Amino acid sequence: ASKRHMREAVKNINGPYCVPLIGPIHLAYGLTPQNVFTKGVNLGQKYGGFIKIWLFNRLIIGTADPEINEQILSSSTNLSKHRLYGVLHRWLGTGLLTSDGAKWHARRKIITPTFHFKILEEFVEIFNQQSAVFTERLTTKADGKTPFDIYPYVCSATLDIIAETAMGTKVGAQTDTTMAYTAAVEETTRITAWRFLRLHLHNDIVFMLLHPFKSLRLIKNLRIMHEFTHKVIEERRKTLQQRLKKETSVRDHYDVGTKKRMALLDVLLQSTINGKPLSNEDIREEVDTFMFEGHDTTATALGFTLYLLSRHPRVQQKLWKQIHHLHGDENSRTCSIMSLNELKYLECVIKESLRLYPPVPIIGREITQDFKYKHSTLGEGIIPAGTELVIAIYAMSANHFVYENPSEFMPERHEDVKINNGFHYLPFSAGPRNCIGQKFAMLELKVALVHVIRCYELLPLGESIEPVLGIVTRSKTGMQLGLKKRTKH
Ligand code: HEM
């Protein structure tokens, strides 16, 4: 698209002063993973929820506007991800999160049934077992006075869960505490987020020349992560082959729609697209994608929720009472989907934590075709092809028009089911490219929280969290709290 057409199309959109041919260097200067959240929210407060920035020759439009979000996200056009996702390609290839066009469409179609309600019902058993291990591991920390960072614990629990459910493989992250994979993911996402904010480092060669140490760390981490996922695939392949030998057809056993549904990795190992089976590389990129997306986001959500509960005793007590009312003193009782449905307040607690600290703080799209929108105050307009669109998920939680005292942790606000009707609440995104693991994540979080809350009281000990951008939201100080074993009532 011509730049003149683009400038003309967006002239009604507000935005900060941009130095001609360069951009808002005064804003970009000193941008760090720590201050990016406040700077983003300040920008929104000053210029509104729909703003434009010219950066060199690039047009970036940021939206925290529910009307624009709804039209963009619900549309079946403009589904391509922002070019910045490219820095993830060496790690995740072009799996579901990072692929576009026909490839994305074909993959989404074969993967969607693997997160069907029926299969989630079967996963709940694994959520229970792994949550019991997680709760047991915390015993040594429950002295009632010493703060500790709970993040590494939640991280290995969610990794065990995604591996055993979607991949059908036990990796024992909670029992083998020396596992290099989680540390490699942590460092990779930290370095990548830092790199995200430095435009000149997006090029691989420039990055390698200017930051050889960080670059070498990334290469080392990539090797660790790929070796790990390779092992997961090979183990499952072996198991499947052994089963094939025993049964005339694996499909007899996993008859889709009637008996058991197939989990993700089994589907990948046996699917065909256009008559061809998936290559090893095709499978690896999806396994890498789901291993990462499936554990890191949920770990962040669980960690922040536990932290918030530790700092809000009233909320914690109310939640515990509900759980206790349902389970009594039977701490070993497993959760079923039905019993979880009764815990309405638990759902509100998770929703509120995801509002305050959305694990995926921003998402980006590349606008490939002129996009016509209608807005109640801006009128009709066009987001021109060539625009880089950023949806600021985290900035919307600070919206004073929607939320009373937006910075407060108040799960009760979600009891009014209408509150999240609009497109201002998007922790899982929305529309055709929404989070495929949304129901999986909500169930997993519920089970894990029930297990922890009925055993321990969470105490407000240790440093406060300091959110930082690490692809997923992280905290610079970790997620510190204390634990005390609950006594029987
Ligand atoms: C609380 C936990 C989670 C949150 C907050 C979350 C959030 C999101 C968001 C915001 C997106 C859109 C990303 C974008 O447009 O770039 C997304 C996509 C995705 N999520 Fe999640 N997610 C969570 C858990 C999970 C889990 C457990 C899985 C896997 C089991 C998963 C797998 C994916 C995949 C594969 C995509 C890409 C979907 C596509 O483009 O078709 N996520 N998630």
From TrEMBL:
<dbReference type="InterPro" id="IPR017972">
    <property type="entry name" value="Cyt_P450_CS"/>
</dbReference>
<protein>
    <recommendedName>
        <fullName>Cytochrome P450</fullName>
    </recommendedName>
</protein>
<dbReference type="InterPro" id="IPR001128">
    <property type="entry name" value="Cyt_P450"/>
</dbReference>
<keyword id="KW-0560">Oxidoreductase</keyword>
<comment type="similarity">
    <text>Belongs to the cytochrome P450 family.</text>
</comment>
<dbReference type="InterPro" id="IPR002401">
    <property type="entry name" value="Cyt_P450_E_grp-I"/>
</dbReference>
<dbReference type="GO" id="GO:0004497">
    <property type="term" value="F:monooxygenase activity"/>
</dbReference>
<keyword id="KW-0479">Metal-binding</keyword>
<dbReference type="GO" id="GO:0016705">
    <property type="term" value="F:oxidoreductase activity, acting on paired donors, with incorporation or reduction of molecular oxygen"/>
</dbReference>
<keyword id="KW-0349">Heme</keyword>
<dbReference type="InterPro" id="IPR050196">
    <property type="entry name" value="Cytochrome_P450_Monoox"/>
</dbReference>
<dbReference type="Pfam" id="PF00067">
    <property type="entry name" value="p450"/>
</dbReference>
<dbReference type="GO" id="GO:0020037">
    <property type="term" value="F:heme binding"/>
</dbReference>
<keyword id="KW-0732">Signal</keyword>
<keyword id="KW-0503">Monooxygenase</keyword>
<dbReference type="GO" id="GO:0005506">
    <property type="term" value="F:iron ion binding"/>
</dbReference>
<dbReference type="InterPro" id="IPR036396">
    <property type="entry name" value="Cyt_P450_sf"/>
</dbReference>
<feature type="binding site" description="axial binding residue">
    <location>
        <position position="435"/>
    </location>
    <ligand>
        <name>heme</name>
    </ligand>
</feature>
<keyword id="KW-0408">Iron</keyword>
